[in-house]
Amino acid sequence: MAHDEVSGPESPASDSSAVETSRGTSTTTVVASDVENPGEPAHRQRVTDTDPKAAKTAQRSVYTLFYLSIAGSVFAIAAYMAFPIENDDVGSVRLNTLFIGIGVALALFGIGLGAVHWAKALMYDKEGIDIRHPVAGTPETRARAVEIFHEADQESGFGRRTLIRNSLIGALIAFPLPGIVLFRGLAPQSEDPAELLSHTMWKKGARLTLDPSGIPVKASDVTIGSVFHIIPEGLNEMPDRLEQKAKAAVLLMRLNPEDLNISPGRESWSYDGIVAYSKICTHVGCPVALYEQQTHHLLCPCHQSTFDVVNECQVIFGPAKRPLPQLPIEVDSEGYLVAQSDFNEPVGPSFWERS
Amino acid sequence: MPRTSRKAGRRHPLATVVLIAIGLVVTGGGYALLSSTTTATADTSATSQETIDEGQKLFAANCATCHGMSLEGTPDGPSLIGVGAAAVNFQVGTGRMPMAMQGPQAMQKPPQFTDEQTAALAAYVASISPGPAIPDPSLLQGDGDATNGGELFRINCAMCHNVHGAGGALTEGKFAPELTGVLPTHIYEAMLTGPQNMPVFNDDNLTPEDKRDIITYLKYLENNPSPGGVELGSLGPVAEGLFAWIFGLGAIIGLMVWLTAKSN
Q1: B160 touches chain A (CB under 8 A)
Q2: Are B88 and B121 within 8 A, CB to CB?
Q3: d(CA A284, CA A275)
Q4: Which of A72, A158, B52, B144, CA to CA, is 20 to 30 A from A137?
Q5: Residue A61, domain member (yes or no)
């Protein structure tokens, strides 16, 4: 800036020469500007500075806002008493929240708006500059600080008694180790997580039962177009019910047997058009349960992966990579649907060890 | 002597005749009154041959083009064999049938037929292809167990119809409709018959009591305001997020402009 001011008066000459050099050799030449530094704009007075009436109005609005805040606080207390939360009436929660909220909002906004309006309209508004002191200390203080470090080293013997120092460093390194071991203990110890993810509760002869009642399902109950939400027999008695359900949930559907395209080796997995598929999406494990009984599409609500039940739940749209695993089923001597075995592949999303 | 005259009156030979006459008038009148009310209700629910004939005419004029003269179906519409009265009452009663045009799914619109005509159509279809009947009114009062209904709704229905019954999108332009404002009869019939792409939930899957509980839950949601305030269509994070972004951020930006602007 100072340079600009100096070169200001002789600007026409230097300007033209600069332009010439820029044409002749390079384009990096700094072109001196002949525009003068306009400096700070003149201080503009506010209406409240010039007009005492406006100042009075502003003062009135500020104290009105503060009084409104007081009224809001009192209103919130009154609303808490006037609109109590009644048992068996969810509507009362809504009224209670609404009116207490209005009161508290009025109380806080009143203070905030009033304070800001006060500062903006009425407080002293001349621009002032406070020069900040230099950050670095004087050379003497800095030299003294270094001296103190040396003295401390001498007095403690930290640099001299290396055995003590090194053993201390060793102790500091060792002390977080128990924490790491304790955290490791939070992970499964005796069980292999890959093994846990690879198997579900389903086993040979386990009955297919209704979610959530656990009533076994007969093949004759499942009419064409039906969809049954299925859990394995005995799931409700398991101590880790939810963990087991997260893997073993099954969707049971009955289609017209002619509609199903069954690949070799899976002929015996369904029963007269009744098919059972894992409900856990192979993308990230949402429950796939939006079944369209005319198109036979199964849609996952999370990321719109679509599976074609007619073609063994092949993916026809969306981010899922693998078809839903099929649960092989058969009918027992009493007519109930039972599993032939567990799923023949891990259910749900991919994991590191999954082959 | 009033005493003797009353005694004499009771013993009078004509007393028996008068008593019999009074008794006949009372029972006969009562019976006539009773039978007139029962026939009045029977006319709407029971299926007389007259209603079936009426239904046949309506069917031939309005439905047979697509569904075939004997309900066998055509390339334009599915067969109605085995659908029963409940499906007809749902499809026609909600205005989905007759369809205005072919599309991803039949749209709900003001019903084209009166209740009597719908009942006649249902009676006709049920007489030719028996199937699930129109549910008993005792299951439609919304007086079941809303807690059980809520659990069953979340397991069986919420993935398509939204946990609050606000409906949701399916594939290729199809959608699961909103359930608020739907008559209990139609909710029950939809579960029982599985209209269009909705799966069937027969009585072995959801018992009639389960269906009653689900209706109770839906009516509870409909009749009780949400404790969390304005529901914004109960669409969850999309509607709520949009509201927060536009109005919440808008208010913050507005306040910042005011804070930093110089007072005039």
Answers
A1: yes
A2: yes
A3: 23
A4: A158
A5: yes
- Note whether B199 contacts A225, CB cutoff 8 Å: yes
Peptide linkage before A212 cis (omega within 30 of 0)? yes
Same domain for A75 and A169, yes or no, is yes
Q: What is the pLDDT of residues B216-260, one digit of tens each?
A: 999 998 888 788 888 888 888 888 999 999 999 999 999 999 999
The mean of the pLDDT values for chain B is 85
* The pLDDT value given to residue A6: 41
| Greater model confidence, A141 or A41 | A141
Instruction: Tell me whether strands A250-254 and A227-232 are parallel, antiparallel or unpaired.
Output: antiparallel
Q: What is the pLDDT of residue A269?
A: 94
Domain assignment of residue A355, yes or no: no
How do strand A297-299 and strand A274-278 relate by DSSP bridges? unpaired
What percent helix, strand, coil does chain B show, rounded to 5?
60, 5, 40
State residue B242's pLDDT score.
93
Nearest CA in chain A to B152: A212
- Contact (CB<8Å) A297/B171: yes
Same domain, A19 and A80: no
Same-domain status, A151 and A265 = no
- Contact flag A293-B198 (C-beta cutoff 8 Å): yes
CATH of the domain at A235: 2.102.10.10
In a domain, A103, yes or no: yes
CA dihedral B222, B223, B228, B229 (to 10 degrees): 100
Q: What average pLDDT does the segment A310-326 reach?
A: 94
Instruction: Please check whether residue B158 touches A, CB under 8 A.
Output: no
Domain match, A31 and A57 both: no
Q: Which chain A residue shows the shortest CA-CA distance from B160?
A: A290
Same domain, A212 and A238: yes
Do A169 and A231 fall within a single domain?
Answer: no
Q: A276: part of which helix (H) or strand (E)?
A: strand A274-278
Q: How far is A266 from chain B (nearest CA, A)?
A: 25
Co-location of A316 and A211 in the same domain = yes
Please check whether residue B223 touches A, CB under 8 A. no
Identify which of B156, B171, B263 has the shortest CB distance to residue A292: B171
Q: Which residue did the predictor score with more confidence, B230 or A10?
A: B230
In chain B, which residues have pLDDT < 50? 1-2, 4, 36-45
Identify the bridge partners of residue A274 per DSSP, sorted by sequence position.
A254, A271
pLDDT of residue A190: 82
Candidates B151, B152, B197; nearest CB to A292 = B197
What is the rounded average pLDDT for all residues in chain A? 88
| Residue range of the domain that includes A26 | 1-35
**Chain A / chain B CB contacts < 8 angstroms:** 90
Of A1-5, A84-88, A308-312, which one has max mean pLDDT? A308-312
Total count of domains within chain A? 3
Contact between chains at A293 and B156 (C-beta distance less than 8 A): no
Is some CB atom of chain A closer than 8 A to the CB atom of B154? no
**Nearest residue on chain A to B262, alpha-carbon basis:** A120
Is residue A288 domain-shared with residue A154, that is, in the same domain?
A: no
Q: Say how many CA atoms lie within 13 Å of B38 toward its Cβ.
A: 6
Q: What is the ipTM of this complex?
A: 0.74
Task: Point out the residue among B174, B229, B259 whose CB comes nearest to the CB of A116.
Answer: B259
For residue A206, how many other CB atoms are within 10 A of its CB? Answer: 21
CB contact under 8 A, B227 and A116: no
